[in-house]
Amino acid sequence: MSLGQQLAPHLPFLRRYGRALTGSQAQGDRYVRATLEAIVAAPGEFPRDVDPRLGLYRTFQAIWNSTNFDEVAADDVAEEQEAVARARLSRMTPLSRQALLLTAMEGFTPEDAAYLIEVDAAEVDALVAEALAEIEKQTRARVLVIEDEPIIAMDIESIVRDLGHEVTGVAVTRDEAVALAMEDRPGLVLADIQLADDSSGIDAVKDILAEFNVPVIFITAFPERLLTGERPEPTFLITKPFQRSTVKAAISQALFFDESTVPA
């Protein structure tokens, strides 16, 4: 199997990491594109002594550390939420943010994350704790859950409340989700794709976003429906079955980029 074939399945998730790290789909994709260009230009320098996914992210990290894409083109002016993210990012050390995303969002072990960001493994847990503490200080929200499986919905509610946020309601259909959102406007939406009456969580989110802007996290067993390479894509996408730590990290990261959250 060629190197390209080995790396292809991991690219949608690298794009997810790039978007979460930068707060911008366009900017995150620039780093991913630069990563691929570097691999194509010098395939012999690609790390061959580790898993291909680990080597891919290590190459991305090298690009991230050496390239500055902060200056964007005139037709790619940062949206307001990106400006909010940059202001908040300035209050967090870069390593702690990367450690959080790599472990809680991308699922790397602390040892692998240490390899990727070039620190001692013992430092990773401390960096993650530092990142979560900083984010939690800055963000609070009211959350709408769109999920038709009662046990999963209860688990998500518990996670949301453990983080200090309030749940405005749990919807099991598209119509119910839209009605709840209009009745009590949330500051964050957590949405499944396949709902109880065969309606779509994607359509519910589109209906809500047509009325007002709100950050959205999709939690689904069907990530391929959203990671298509077509725009717009969700910045935050969690695959079922999920880890509680992954959902916590996604909530914190999504709120990190939203101006409506109230600093603690």
TrEMBL record:
The modification 4-aspartylphosphate is found at residue 192. The keyword Zinc does not apply. GO terms for biological process: phosphorelay signal transduction system. InterPro entries: Bact_response_regulator, CheY-like_superfamily, PhyR_sigma2, PhyR_sigma4, Sig_resp-reg_PhyR, Sig_transdc_resp-reg_receiver. Residues 142-255 form the Response regulatory domain. Keywords: Phosphoprotein. This is Response regulator. It comes from Sphingomonas ginsenosidimutans. It comes from the Bacteria. Pfam families: PhyR_sigma-like (PF22233), PhyR_sigma2 (PF22029), Response_reg (PF00072). PROSITE patterns: RESPONSE_REGULATORY.
